[in-house]
Structures are given as C-alpha cells and as structure tokens.
Design a protein that fits this description.
Number of strands: 0
Structural class: mainly alpha
Shape: globular
Number of helices: 10
Distance between the termini: 50 Å
Radius of gyration: 16 Å
Largest sheet: none
Strand content: under 5%
Number of domains: 1
C-alpha cells in the first residue's frame, strides 16, 4: 500500500506541473491566467500566446498523463496504469503548484490513454481534429474525442478502461459546462488558425 501511495502522490505532482504557466511566464513574460479564459490549459495558451506556445503546452500536458500512467511500470508495481493516470488528471485540474486552478483535463486524459491504449489515442485524435476542422470549437471537439474514446472502450470490452474513460469523459464534460452554454448561445469563440 505504501508503494501505491508513492505512485499516487508522484502522479498527482506530475499532473500538477503547470505547463501553461511555465511556458507563458518563462518564454513570453505572460501569466495566461490573467488573459483569455484564465485557464492554464493548451486552448487558452493557443488563444493568448499563439500556435507555437499552444502546441508546446498541449504536448507537455499530454506527456504528463503518459508519464504518470507509466509510473507503475517504472516501479514494477501491480497497480493498473489507468489508476495512476487518474491522479495525474486530478493534478492537472487542481494543481498544487498553481493554486489548485488548472486546466480542463483533456490533454492529460489523452496522455493517459496514449500510454495504455495507443490505437484508441490515435482514433480519438482523428475524431478530435475532424470535429475541430468542421466546427472550429476546441471544447466541442474535446468532448467529441471523449465520446469516441468511450465508444472504443465499450467495443474492446475492457471493463476498467470503460469505467476510467467514463469517469474522465464525465469530468471533461463537467469542466466544459460553461463552454456548452456558450456553444448553445453561439457565443463560444472559434479558432482561427485551422482551415
């Protein structure tokens, strides 16, 4: 149990690394929490600092989830990778290093799935970018990608994967509730750098 506790703590701390804050302050002299939506995730970084910074933060946030999910492997633990990954997602959303105000869990959740089910990750990314191309809504595309992941997990009949993906998707949708209202009201910002 001690080993599990160490992995959970490390996964949370990895998830808590505020990529958007580090890139924004370190390379652009900008605290993205003071701009745009105030969110620390990749989408707000794209809007505030541009494509290069947005891609950097998104990739970093994905890799946080991947690294955290790999911790049981590194520790030669019997813990399931998905369980460690959940703690990284919690860390990303409520980071101890950024006043417990983080991102919306999309990229880090995807990173967890990248480690555990790479083909699922590929499929959901294709779905994400197709939705993004046609709608220009990052928030809607994120939720659509989550739906694809849930359908995929049901098709492959992996019970724990179904449960974890359902939890992650529910969390992502919950974190996007304001975006959903704006989409319905047609006030949600659309991206301008794709298509």
């Amino acid at each position: 149990m001690f080993e599990y506790g160490i992995i959970f703590i490390l996964a949370y701390l990895i998830g808590s690394i505020p990529s958007g804050l580090i890139i924004g302050k370190g390379f652009y002299g900008t605290d993205i929490r003071q701009h745009g939506s105030g969110n620390l995730g990749g989408t707000n970084t794209f809007r505030v600092l541009g494509v290069k910074a947005g891609l950097t933060v998104t990739i970093a946030d994905i890799l946080k989830g991947t690294l955290a999910a790999a911790l049981p492997f590194f520790f030669q633990s019997e813990m399931h990778a998905l369980l460690a990954g959940i703690f990284a997602v919690i860390g990303h959303t409520y980071p101890i290093f950024a006043g417990f105000k983080g991102g919306k869990a999309v990229a880090t959740s995807a990173g967890v799935l990248l480690f555990y089910a790479p083909f699922m990750f590929l499929i959901l990314m294709i779905g994400f970018f197709l939705c993004l191309y046609f709608t220009k809504y990052v928030s809607l595309s994120s939720m659509f990608g989550g739906l694809i992941a849930l359908i995929y997990s049901i098709i492959v009949q992996d019970p724990l994967l179904i449960i974890v993906v359902a939890i992650l998707v529910s969390f992502v949708v919950y974190r996007h509730r304001a975006n959903i209202k704006r989409i319905i009201n047609k006030t949600e910002p659309k991206i301008k750098w794709l298509g």
